[in-house]
Design a protein that fits this description.
The basal body constitutes a major portion of the flagellar organelle and consists of four rings (L,P,S, and M) mounted on a central rod. Helices cover about 20% and strands about 35% of the residues. It contains 6 helices and 25 strands. Strands 3-4-5-10-7-6 form a 6-stranded antiparallel barrel. The chain has a 4-stranded antiparallel β-sheet with strand order 2-11-13-12, covered by helices on one side.
Length: about 375
């Protein structure tokens, strides 16, 4: 009875591990052609409380303000030299146009100061056309922006939290032009893997063919081609994106030296190697002693130097051996046993790679 329960528990754990390893195709691949498009525009933010651009030093802000007023029927060319306001700032406006966005739908926009404005908090972005790479206007942005920053200044000190010269306008953009792309009319589509891998692409193709018949084939490690000549494209994609596969990842160790962060893949393997880690540390401490003679003895006060020298050669660190084929878990456990910190671990991994014992790609950023 106990044996049966143990076998059932083991089988359940195995099934849970497999289920956790499975991912949906929609989470690791995209339909080629279905993507976002970047938009950019130049505009003015008004309503700032003296924290905008200096019009004397920022000519483009001044000219933009004059041009905007002229379009509204206000002639300020004759008094341009007298314009000294600091309540206006020139900004760059950026946004992403989602795939299948329809005319009239709303998108978020980001606003960033272009001149020497100190704070955009509380400002309002005036109507700003947003252009794509083809030079066409696809959206128009306007609205009150929020920076989420705090800035306070006094006579002798100031404090700033966040970035007051950059903000966002939620739903501040209105789509004016659509990007035409019709999936339902397509006779063939391509799935693009976000992390190109031939094994993963083959598994995706096999899972699709098992579920829907021989409609998928792998063209390269990034692409799986779908033949939809006699099928409904939308219904087929709806089925495909929820199919589950087990992605295969290459053995990679990524090191960020700036922050000391190390990320290692599950397939990282180490050949037989011996590791010793330690540094010689010499610590010198000066503790001078003052010798004070008794009164009326005619003695002289003297200072006696006192020096303490400590040498730490880390003799308690032992040579560790990692046998061939050890896994990531064994590698981490072995290095932790040596008391290795992240900074030292970076040097060790680089040395292991140089010795040819690290069976993985080492990426240092």
């Amino acid at each position: 009875m106990r044996l049966a329960i143990s076998l059932c528990l083991l089988l359940w754990l195995c099934l849970m591990a497999v289920a956790q390893a499975d991912v949906r195709i929609k989470d690791i691949a995209d339909v080629e052609g279905v993507r976002e498009n970047q938009l950019i525009g130049y505009g003015l933010v008004v309503g700032l409380k003296g924290t905008g651009d200096n019009l004397i030093d920022n000519i483009f802000t001044k000219e933009s303000l004059i041009g905007m007023l002229e379009r509204l029927g206000v002639n300020t060319r004759d008094q341009a030299a007298m314009m000294m306001t600091k309540d206006v700032a020139a900004v760059m406006v950026t946004a992403e146009l989602p795939a299948f966005a329809r005319s009239g739908s709303r998108i978020d926009v980001a606003v960033s100061a272009l001149g020497d404005a100190k704070d955009l908090t509380g400002g309002t972005l005036l109507v700003t056309p947003l252009l794509a790479a083809d030079g066409e206007v696809y959206a128009v942005a306007q609205g009150a922006l929020s920076t989420g920053a705090i800035s306070a200044r006094g006579a002798g000190a100031s404090v700033t939290r966040g970035v007051p010269t950059a903000g966002r306008i939620s739903n501040g953009g209105t789509v004016e032009k659509e990007v035409s792309f019709q999936i339902d009319k397509a006779h063939g589509l391509w799935l693009g893997l976000r992390n190109p891998d031939l094994t993963t692409a083959t598994r995706i193709s096999a899972a699709i063919n098992r579920a829907l018949g021989p409609i998928a084939r792998v063209t390269d490690p990034r692409t799986v081609q779908l033949d939809l000549s006699d099928r409904d494209a939308m219904q087929t994609l709806s089925t495909i994106e929820n199919l589950r596969v087990v992605p295969d990842n290459p053995a990679v160790v990524v090191i960020d030296e700036a922050s000391g962060t190390i990320v290692m893949g599950d397939n990282v393997r180490i050949s037989t190697v011996a590791i010793a880690q330690g540094n010689l540390t010499i610590r010198i401490t000066e503790s001078p002693q003052v010798s004070q003679p008794n009164p009326l003895t005619g003695g002289v006060t003297t200072v006696t130097p006192g020096t303490s020298i400590q040498i730490d050669d880390q003799h308690d660190r032992k040579l560790g051996i990692l046998h061939s084929g050890v896994t990531l878990r064994d590698l981490v456990a072995g290095l932790n046993a040596l008391g290795v910190g992240p900074r030292d671990l970076i040097s060790i991994l680089e040395t292991i790679k140089a010795a040819g014992a690290l069976q993985a790609d080492l990426e240092v950023r």
